[in-house]
Every structure is written in structure tokens, then in C-alpha cells.
Amino acid sequence: xxxxxxxxxxxxxxxxxxxxxxxxxxxxxxxxxxxxxxxxxxxxxxxxxxxxxxxxxxxxxxxxxxxxxxxxxxxxxxxxxxxxxxxxxxxxxxxxxxxxxxxxxxxxxxxxxxxxxxxxxxxxxxxxxxxxxxxxxxxxxxxxxxxxxxxxxxxxxxxxxxxxxxxxxxxxxxxxx
Amino acid sequence: xxxxxxxxxxxxxxxxxxxxxxxxxxxxxxxxxxxxxxxxxxxxxxxxxxxxxxxxxxxxxxxxxxxxxxxxxxxxxxxxxxxxxxxxxxxxxxxxxxxxxxxxxxxxxxxxxxxxxxxxxxxxxxxx
Lengths: 177, 128
Fold this sequence. Notes:
- The complex is a heterodimer of chains A (about 180) and B (about 130).
- Chain A has helices spanning about 10-30, 50-55, 60-80, 85-105, 110-135, 140-165, 170.
- Chain A has about 180 residues and is mostly helical.
- Chain A has a single domain (about 10-170), classed as Arp2/3 complex 21 kDa subunit ARPC3, CATH 1.10.1760.20.
- The radius of gyration of chain A is 16 Å and the shape is globular.
- Helices cover about 25% and strands about 30% of the residues of chain B.
- Chain B contains three helices and seven strands.
- At the A-B interface, helix 1, helix 4, helix 5 and helix 6 of A face helix 1, helix 2, helix 3, strand 6 and strand 7 of B.
């Protein structure tokens, strides 16, 4: 990130790759019918690996960039531009929570748990926005969405953890070890 | 690249003891919340369009209601949606609902169909 004003090619590559992988995951997911029929819009959210990886590997600023690009392009890919109303607030608030958790309690809480909390927050914000837009209380969906979020967060968190753990340092650049 | 953080993640565990504590708290919270939300008996169907037009019908009313963007069917104590004109068809894919804990939500058109109990005062709702 800090390269004396010169664009860091490796950072740019990692950033682009994470976003690309996230978008492909989002696309594939949008073609699969919903797993839990009771909770509308509940899905695995494999694309959420990208902001988390960016947060660990690159930094806070880049994680926000990945989230913004993922929301915007993801909306066009899945064809639901109205979904931006839900994905933007949820994505940014969930990421902010994850950033704070990483800064304050990481090592005590694992990447998996931080991801779980992030995913649950994501679903809660989405539910809140949906309630405000439709003007109808959707709180009966709350327990379901918390459970769905926890499962999705555990999967994405474990994947992120293993990706970062298994990738050799040379992938990230070997100037410092 | 944030090498310090990569190193910390690499040396961290996949699941820790505090994780387990937080998980237990979350599970208890969800169960408490679920017990509170799901204890109502099914009775009525409420169809709401953008939070304005509320149609309230008995779950036993055996009718079909044609709305602007979709058709709601109420038969045999079950509610379901067909002919939605939205792209994602999430509301149709949900299928037939009958319990208080179930809702059909069509976000593009702002339509929410919910099954509710006799006693509305027990409904835990926000946004109204």
C-alpha cells in the first residue's frame, strides 16, 4: 500500500484477483436455488470471503474497496440492482464490525468467529433495511437469519482462514518475512 | 501487504476457547428469541403492499387474490404465490407457507405476506 506514490503491482493484482473470485462465486451462487425456503435471500455468501481476505492480507482501506466493487458489480451480475439497497449498508456495516473486531480482539477470537459475527450482523442489517423499506415487521425471520448467517459466516471464515494459512509468503511478496 | 497480520493469522487457531463462549451466548440468544417469536398459533393471512395496503384474511378463506405484480393463493390452510413478474422469483420459490413463523417476501414489489396469530399484541414487529 505504501510504495512512495508508485502503484504497487502486487497489491493491485491481489486486489483484482480477490474481487474477481468474489464475483464468480456470487454469480454461481445466484444460479443455485435457495437452500432454506423459509428465509428469503438466505444464501452462502461465498463472495464475502473477498473483503475478509483483503482485510487480512492488504488492509482496512482495500477491504472497503473490495466491498464497494463487489456490491456494485455483484448487483449487475445477479441482475438485482435494487439489491444494492440491502447489500451496501449490510456489507459496509458488517465489514466495519469485522475491522473493529480484528483490531481489538483478534487472537482471542478466531478469524472464523469474526466472520460469523460479521455474517450475522450482515443479515441483521439486511433485515432492518427490509423492514424499513417494506414497512412491515419481519422480525419473525430474525432467529432464522441469525442461524443462516452463523452457518454462512463459519464456512466463509474457515475458508478465509485456510486460504491465508496455506498460501506461502511468496504469494504476498517476499521482501519481508 | 500487511505481513504482520498475515503472520498473526497464520499462527492463529481456527477456533478458540473465547469463540466457544461467544457461540454458546449466541445459541442461547437465538433460542430465547425463537421461543418468543414462534409461539403464536396460525390464524390469519396478512398481505401488505409497500407497508400501506393491508389485506387481512382468514387462513381458511379458500380464495385467490390477484395483485398488480403477483397472485396470492389461500387454500387448505396454506398460502402461496404464483405469476410474480419479478426477475428473481424468490417469492414463488418459497412455496407454500402455513405457520406463524413463515413469510413470503417479494422485495422488488414490496409485497409481504405473513401468517399471524389471533393475538396481535404478541407480534414482535418493527418498522410500523
